Amino acid sequence: RPSPAAAPDRLPFSRITQEDLAFFRKILPGRAVTDPDLLESSNVDWLKSVKGESEFTSFHLKIYFLVVIIFNSSILTSSAGSRGNTGLVGGSVPVYDEIILSTALMNNILTFDSISGILTCQAGCVLENLSLYLEDREYIMPLDLGAKGSCHIGGNVATNAGGLRLLRYGSLRGTVLGLEVVLADGRVLDCLATLRKDNTGYDLKQLFIGSEGTLGVITSVSILCPRKPKSVNVVFLGCETFEQLLKTFQLSRGMLGEILSAFEFLDSECMRLLNTHLKLRNPISDCPFYVVIETSGSDSTHDGEKLHNFLEEAMTSSLVTDGTVATEDSKIKALWSMRERVTEALTHDGFTYKYDISLPVERIYQLVTDMREHLGNRAKSVVGYGHVGDGNLHLNVTSPAKDPALLAAIEPFVYEWTASCNGSISAEHGLGLKKRNYIYYSKPSQAVALMGNIKAMLDPKGILNPYKTLPDDLK
Ligand code: FAD
Ligand code: 2HG
Ligand code: ZN
Predict the structure, then answer these.
(1) Which of 70, 371, 424, 441 could anchor a disulfide with 415, C-beta 3.0 to 4.6 Å?
(2) pLDDT of the residue at 42
């Protein structure tokens, strides 16, 4: 097996020449971008941790077809400019000189059925814009995440993003009803169904959900959207121990039942970073653990009563030590930002090593504790936060600068720990460039080999997002 840290060698793809560029510019004026400043933002990932050398971004699928058919160059679907490119595993930036295909101009909403709640739109729609469009029509998107102002729905589907609402509305594997995908040979696969049920043969769209641009370019998406809840409450609570936090989770499931829409957590180290780097003030007294609980329902009196009873029980049984409730929009947003902005706070703390781990929920914080002990004073900060309701921990370790010795202390320790609990080394961010060679910690060799067969069938020349998702030993 290859060394996980080794940089992949450049594969023998053609290189784009000045003549090629002149040709593209002639047939599609303004859609072939070679401006180094624009390319700079597409060559570097959101975390500023990996950098490619692409000299060419295209805003037009026609260029994609030409590249595929004529040039046998390699293609990466991502975005130029300020939107998209929020992926956290180095999957959305080139490794060498891959051509970057941007979907940013494919940003039209195609249809919305206000009876079924089914939306169809192009892949370059920004998630927040879709949410605003739906809210005006009394609907919401089934997913929400901190990067909503930048990420594209195509990127969300390509990474099978989880986010803050998965507990309530499930994963994109359930809510995405159809996709239109351009295949590696230029064929357009029209599986843009708008049906909730369709068992005619294999469900091909599932192959592209979470495939990180390695099997096809998603151009349109149809997605089932829930009704906008009439009553939303958010509470921010403090717990003394993680055990109490888990008991609070259990209690919330029992007492809030169908109105529970999110159960998220952050530890006191996250709170310290929010205070220090973003000047966000803790809305309650200092505690080792904080919880964000959201309820979404259709009757504010009913929801309020349920929430009141739950909070009373949580307080009297000493599961939570302090808390605050929000019902109005601005306070709801302020409480949510304590959870949503941890990722941003971390970027100000130093170079960040990110781990996105699925575990049996009762084990998730043990990994943070063990990692702290294992690293001693070698790390600047070791923080834990994430989606308790989904058994998904975000373990982040920072250091003043990139630190190969620290990385060697974290990996493979973190992956071995995860595998020993039958966890997943990537719960929701994907494998991209950074995690692909660790796939064997979560998948058996037969499964990885089958993935290789699927890749070879759909992309025999390996031109789609090369060096990503699949491990080097499959190439
Ligand atoms: P990009 O970063 O541009 O691309 C991501 C991958 O998808 C790349 O491999 C790219 O090649 C591929 N891709 C993009 N578009 C297409 C397309 N049209 N067809 C085929 N392939 C394509 N993730 C979560 O799961 N849950 C979270 O809660 C969450 N929160 C985040 C918060 C912040 C602040 C940030 C920065 C990131 C967060 N992420 C989260 C990670 C990230 O996966 C998501 O932000 C998002 O899904 C990526 O969308 P994007 O448009 O930016 O995709
Ligand atoms: C979140 O849940 C995102 O906030 C980002 O998935 C997690 O930055 C991270 O590690
Ligand atoms: Zn997350």
Answers:
(1) 441
(2) 84
278 Cα to the center of ligand 1, angstroms: 23
Say if CB 77 and CB 90 are below 8 A apart: no
378-400 per-position pLDDT tens digit: 999 999 999 999 999 999 999 99
Beta strand 231-239 with 289-297 is antiparallel
Q: For residues 324 and 261, is the Cβ–Cβ distance under 8 A?
A: no
4 close to ligand 2 (CB < 6 Angstrom): no
Torsion of CA 438, 444, 450, 453, to 10 degrees: 40
pLDDT of residue 338: 98
Q: Are 135 and 329 in contact (CB under 8 A)?
A: no
User: What does the pLDDT look like over 63-107, one tens digit per residue?
Assistant: 666 565 555 567 776 665 558 899 999 999 999 989 888 898 899
Domains in the chain (CATH in brackets) are 109-224 (3.30.465.10), 231-342 (3.30.70.2190), 350-441 (3.30.70.2740)
- Taking a C-beta distance cutoff of 8 angstroms, is the pair 92, 78 a contact? yes
Integer Cα distance of 394 and 354 in angstroms: 7
Ligand 2 centroid, distance to 394 Cα (angstroms): 6
pTM: 0.96
Per residue in 301-324, pLDDT (tens digit) is 999 999 999 999 999 999 999 999
Q: Residues near 63 by Cβ (< 8 Å), separated by ≥ 6?
A: 24, 28, 31, 32, 99, 101
* Closest ligand 2 atom to Cα of 346: 8
| Placement of tokens 């919305």 in the chain | 112
Which of 61, 64, 91 is CA-nearest to residue 155? 91
Rounded mean pLDDT of the chain?
A: 93
CA distance 137 to 131: 10
- Return the SS3 of 287: coil
Atom of ligand 1 nearest to the CA of 78: 3
